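One such shown below:
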Amino acid sequence: MKTLIVHAHPEPKSLNGSLKDLAVSTLEGAGHEVRVSDLYAMSWKAVVDAADYGPHASSPLKVAADSGRAFEAGTLTEDVRAEQDKLLWADTIIFQFPLWWYTMPAILKGWVDRVFTYNFAYGVGEHSDTKYGERFGEGTLAGKRALLSVTAGGPQPHYAARGINGPIDDLLFPIQHGILYYPGIDVLPPFVLYSTDRMTAEEYPAVAKAWERRLLTLESTEPIPFRRQNFGDYEIPSLHLKEGLEAAGRTGFGLHVRA
């Protein structure tokens, strides 16, 4: 297995840093190939601008169209092309990050904004009366698997079904479904640690053991059963879920997960 770890935490000695290092040693120890994109260590540029697209940047800037032309011409900046090559190389992608203000750190969102360009991560495939592009189960990155490894400062009950922060599956849905599943990546159930601001050194060995177990079962873990877009569940072109396919009482994000 070839695994890319995209790591987003500014402190190498943080819990996130330890989990990243443990993932590298565990996977390599099991005979897998591992590459790491440590975004803070790389001083990753987190904002999209005209410089990303070189001679294919228009005025006014049109991010989708310009990024697609630059991708097709091979003129995206070297850092972006390198990350796209890593994604094409990998079988599995692990995203290691803290949950900050209910989402990923800005540097990681900037990685997505710049690397997931038009004609690479989206805008591919035919649009017709029966198909609305290759996305949500199809696309450039179909066949790959991803796992979010997330640390949250709050206690687990705060992220439960009736918790004040909202269910963790809802908070992660825009990332898991909207960013990863969109270009075809199968998404594994996340590895989430809670109350991490209060975690003691004595608690870490149990956390490490649980993380090692998840890492060593990546290839056999069943992905979240998100619905595929072009395979009969949705009306086209409205992309509304067809009536009666949902489980009784299910609403919201849960509609897009098969019962």
Summary: The mean pLDDT is 96. DSSP finds seven helices and six strands in the chain. Strands lie at 2-7, 33-38, 92-98, 145-151, 186-187, 191-193. The radius of gyration is 19 Å.
